[in-house]
Design goal:
The protein is an alpha+beta fold and 940 residues long. The chain is 39% helix and 17% strand. The chain contains 31 helices and 26 strands. The strands form five sheets. Strands 1-4-5-9-6-8-7 form a seven-stranded mixed beta sheet, with helices on both faces. Strands 15-16-20-17-19-18 form a six-stranded mixed beta sheet, with helices on both faces. Helix 11 (349-365) crosses helix 15 (423-433) and helix 26 crosses helix 30. The longest helix has 20 residues, at 146-165. The two termini are 52 Å apart.
């Protein structure tokens, strides 16, 4: 996503200003990103920021080309080309980038925005020279050929189907919102493109696009992490200085969006829309405009958190919306401001539009209160801190400021600009931009509500392809390829050292200082989850967790939201199969008051009947949406298929009928029985010492009394259901979700680490076998993968992919074949080494954030694993051999022991699936009942 030795003859050097730290309200200081900048003679900008505390480094290249630069008739082109950049270069065969990143314990990715495309990697720091060479190869000698072009175009089509066509609101946000907002500017074109325009593209189009935009004078190289400054400067010169700057200038968008002359309405429809939605947009400012900070604060006042104006009015008070949203989308050129809502069941678009406009009018008519202003600023600044926890987050901040605002230094000065915003500024920009007579209203409804008079979407205009006559790069013969640079000596990581103490009431407290960045995560884990749902009340543990922050004996739901958000903190709760967690993230200066609120919601929830009804309706509306998403439905079905007849035999989220049955007394009983200090673990991580953590834990949780009653035993869950084949029919949905799933192992099983490595080989990453076969080789999915979840007494494995409906049977065959191959063919030494590196690298990156470390420590404590496992993890993964992987696969992952679940438009795949599974059960989505052993609703 997201400087020192000089060679004066070929570059110029500019040192970034060190900006004073910014105070968030009256406490924490936000440290600036200290960086150095230089520009090579060919125009390449280079930014470096050194961090000696990490064993890793992030390398990023940002190109000044985005979706707005798509050629006419070729929407989605910049995004398609992003995919092409992961293929071959003159000296690297296709997929080599993953060999240099994922296979050594790193990670790579890219993203396409309106104004830029960024490519980013995080690797062990001793691989820095290699990554610089890799990125120079991509910039200077990319191979653009027919085979890779067609393969990646197919992958992009699957991404479009998954993110847009199979998502109930994908069409609204990805297609209709920009098309309705802009009339002339290319921001109106969807960044994901369309299947018709992707199909119209030719190889000449792609090559011409690369030549026009992928050049050093249109790029910035950003390096953040642990490096030697002199070495880095020398490597940059070696690999980038020789790249040529083309004579022709970079083409830039000059279109200007005209001012609106009056309000407008856009009617949109989709095939799988469970609840209607409304969005209202206005034309906004550009990112570098002096009005931008005030618009960002305005956006936070409208929709940041439960105390925001839109949530409080539409979701909490009027209860007419299931979800609200707003966004000040301020790109490089003038953008938009949007407010919107997904309506609650039984409420109309007219109600939503009226309520949204009323809140906007209040901002125009009066200044926000000082409390609202401070809360919005604290939330924005704390959010910025969280984004900068990681190397890639800091690199993203620099790149975004450079590409969108025109100056990397804005990454540091933007916080001061936010602090300077006054209430009068917010009112002024509301009046200036959000005039009632310049709005565009987008009304999004089910296709069934389209009237005969409503115009259908016009066909895409055909545009001829360009003729490319420039140079063409081909993969060099193996003997003629430039060898990659050597790997340096590794840098040993410094692992956090957790300390623990048990309070007199039985609460186990774990503290690990892990960062000087002013952030702390506090996580309270209760050793009870969805397994404790009473019979017929699936989702009760989840609803209990949802209700914790909806009022206590001394605080109302609104007061909790206001107090937490005024501190710039986040507080959330949720239930999984084995546990329930309450998680707080906050700056250290506000930790004590925030933890007092956290303790209050965990210990003293009121479970007020009126609050339960609000949460019940939100849960039901959420399920109504989820039941139109193939991937979500497949996950719901998996629980009863694998664990039917056991306490895990239902989705943790519950089902519509069970949520409707849950009463206040059910939640009170669950909380009274299981929320007790001797059934909980408190973990504190980040910028906090052990003694401070223990003292604060004692202060806020020491008075939590341990009940005299005995804690009920946890169930010994074992799955014994026979494998099933289930197809859920969702007519008109844009994709099929294909899942193969079955019971797995407990966390204390001696085969835990062989299972981790087996899953890494099968589906744990981009280069794992499933993704290789399904996405990379065949372009059948945007991504295929697998997971093993080891619980207290059992576990579950899942292999999955989403694909076009017509390919569902083929994808199922490929998943089964790879499960079989894992047991019958040993992984080779290089493959095994690479997949272990994926696990070790991912574990290290998780340890590097306060939330990730808290999750790891909390899970170790939940399952009774010694905390020293943090230091033992790498050695235990490294010790696994190919024979252990095969043994595990044969024992646990055999395809004939697994169930099959396919959710999609069944008319496209039912016949083929029946040739693979004679016992196939086909269930229409409107007949699905995940509480029933048959998965079918009872006939009335």
């Amino acid at each position: 996503m997201f400087r020192n030795a000089l060679r004066a003859a070929c570059l110029s050097l500019t040192l970034a200003l060190v900006v004073p730290t910014v105070a968030a309200a009256q406490g924490v200081q936000v440290p600036p990103i200290v960086y150095k900048e230089r520009t090579l003679a060919n125009g390449l900008k280079v930014f470096t920021s050194r961090d000696r505390s990490t064993p890793n480094v992030s390398v990023q290249v940002w190109y000044g080309v985005g979706s707005k630069d798509d050629p006419n008739g070729r929407s989605g082109f910049a995004h398609l080309f992003e995919h092409m950049m992961f293929k071959a270069t003159r000296d690297m065969p296709a997929e080599s980038i993953d060999r240099f990143t994922e296979d050594v314990g790193g990670v790579n990715n890219a993203s396409t925005w309106d104004d830029f495309t960024n490519y980013y990697e995080v690797v062990p720091a001793n691989h820095l020279q290699r990554l610089l060479w890799v990125e120079s190869q991509r910039m200077g000698s990319l191979v653009v050929d027919e085979a890779n072009f067609k393969s990646e175009r197919d992958v992009v089509k699957e991404e479009l189907r998954q993110r847009v066509l199979a998502d109930p609101y994908g069409r609204l946000f990805a297609l209709m919102l920009p098309q309705a907002t802009y009339t002339k500017h290319p921001y109106r074109r969807p960044g994901i493109g369309s299947i018709e325009e992707l199909d119209a593209a030719t190889l000449d189009d792609v090559r011409a696009f690369h030549q026009a935009y992928y050049r050093p004078d249109n790029a910035a190289l950003i390096v953040v992490g642990n490096f030697d400054e002199a070495d880095l400067a020398a490597w940059v010169d070696k690999y980038y200085a020789a790249l040529k700057k083309p004579a022709a200038p970079v083409r830039r968008v000059t279109a200007v969006e005209p001012a609106r002359k009056g309000p407008g309405v856009y009617d949109g429809f989709g095939p799988n829309v469970p609840l209607p939605a409304v969005a209202i947009t206005w034309l906004g400012a550009r990112a570098a405009d002096p009005d931008a900070p005030a618009l960002k604060v305005l956006d936070a006042i409208l929709s940041a958190g439960k105390s925001s104006r839109l949530y409080d009015a539409l979701v909490y008070d009027k209860q007419i919306a299931a979800q609200i949203y707003s966004n000040a989308d301020l790109p490089q050129q003038p953008g938009m401001v949007v407010v919107g809502a997904v309506m609650a069941s039984g409420h109309t678009l007219a109600e939503g539009e009226s309520a949204l406009l009323a809140q906007v009018a209040k901002l125009r008519d009066a200044v926000p209160t000082p409390e609202e202003l401070d809360e919005a600023k604290n939330e924005l600044i704390a959010s910025t801190l969280r984004e900068r926890e990681t190397l890639e987050g800091r690199g993203f901040a620099l790149g975004y400021a450079l590409q969108v605002e025109g100056d990397a230094a804005r990454a540091n000065t933007a916080l001061a600009d936010l602090q300077a915003v006054t209430g009068a500024d917010v009112q002024r920009v509301a009046v200036k931009y959000l005039a009632d007579n310049r709005r565009m209203t987008i009304r999004y409804r089910p296709e069934s509500e389209r009237s005969a008079k409503a115009p259908a979407t016009p066909p895409a205009r055909k545009v001829a392809s360009v003729k490319y006559t420039g140079p063409v790069v081909a993969l060099a013969p193996e003997a003629a390829r430039e060898a990659p640079p050597p790997i340096a000596d590794p840098i040993a990581p410094t692992l956090p050292t957790p300390a623990e103490r048990t309070l007199p009431n039985g609460l186990r407290v774990i503290v690990a200082r892990s960062s000087d960045l002013p952030l702390v995560t506090a996580d309270l884990t209760v050793r009870t989850g969805a397994w404790a749902d009473p019979t017929g009340l699936a989702g009760a543990a989840g609803l209990t967790a949802d209700m914790l922050s909806e009022g206590t004996k001394t605080r109302s739901a609104r007061e909790i939201a206001r107090e937490i958000e005024a501190l710039g903190a986040t507080l959330g709760a949720g239930a999984a199969s084995d546990s329930t967690s309450v998680t707080l993230n906050v700056t250290p200066d506000k930790l004590a008051p925030a933890m007092a609120i956290m303790a209050d919601v965990a210990r003293n929830p009121a479970f007020a009947p009126e609050e339960l009804e609000r949460q019940r309706q939100l849960a039901l509306d959420g399920l109504q949406v989820a039941y139109q998403e193939p991937g979500s439905v497949a996950a719901f079905v998996a629980a009863p298929v694998v664990f039917g007849g056991t306490p895990f035999g239902h989705p943790a989220t519950g089902a519509p009928a069970s949520i409707a049955r849950i009463q206040t007394d059910d939640l009170v009983k669950l909380h009274t029985t299981y929320f007790r200090p001797d059934n909980a673990v408190l973990v504190l991580t980040g910028d906090i010492t052990a003694e401070d953590g223990f003292a604060l834990a004692s202060q806020v949780f020491g008075g939590w009394e341990k009940p005299a009653s005995r804690l009920p035993d946890q169930p010994n869950v074992k799955a014994d259901a026979k494998p099933r084949a289930v197809a859920v029919d969702m007519p008109g949905t844009g994709q099929a979700a294909v899942t193969v799933t079955g019971p797995a192992i407990a966390r204390d099983d001696p085969a835990f680490y062989p299972g981790l490595v087996a899953n890494a080989v099968l589906g744990g990453g981009y280069s794992a076998r499933l993704n290789q076969e399904i996405r990379i080789k065949r372009g059948l999915s945007y991504g295929a993968g697998s997971a093993i979840s080891a619980r207290r007494t059992t576990g579950v494995f899942t292999a999955r992919a989403q694909t076009k409906n017509e390919s569902a049977a083929q994808v199922l065959d490929l998943i089964r074949a790879e499960l079989d191959r894992l047991a019958t063919q040993p992984a080779g030494p290089e493959e095994l080494k690479a997949r272990k590196s994926v696990l070790i690298g991912g574990f290290g990156r998780q340890l590097a954030t306060t939330g990730g470390l808290a999750d790891i420590l909390g899970e170790l404590a939940l399952y009774g694993v010694p905390l020293g496992e943090i230091g033992a993890y790498t050695g235990k993964v490294e010790a696994i051999d190919a024979a252990q992987v095969q043994t595990f696969a044969a024992r646990i992952l055999a395809p004939d022991k697994a169930s099959v679940i396919v959710v999609g438009d069944a008319k496209a795949f039912e016949a083929e699936l029946k040739t693979r599974a004679a016992n196939l059960e086909v269930i229409p989505i409107d007949q699905l009942d995940v509480e029933s052993p048959t998965l079918r609703k009872l006939a009335k």
